[in-house]
Design goal:
about 0% helix, single chain, globular, mainly beta, seven-stranded mixed beta sheet
Length: about 120
Amino acid sequence: QVQLVESGGGSVQAGGSLNLSCAISGSSYSLPYVGWFRQAPGQEREGVAAVYRSRTNSFYADSVAGRFTISQDNAKNTVSLQMNSLKPEDTAMYYCAASWYRGDWWAPRTYDYWGQGTQVTVSS
């Protein structure tokens, strides 16, 4: 049973930073595709960043490019999202997701497994 557990959310002021971590367990093999999504109240879940782990290819939404960085620690089987220069519009629940198969990285339908989410709140 694959499980994803996010941590690292919290409340910060605009311009601050947070580092989210996604711990992946329950599989003998590393799921190759891992993404971060976010969902604000009343809005659709949107893709923020993703990584193709075996080739270390990474992808970012335009709204976070240059501010967020996705990285992986294969020894710990974790994928992190470093978020800098945070803005109030970054406020949302952030979810980690993983998939065995490649698809549209930004689309929730691509992913088979999801974490429970961690809240990020950015105040102005």
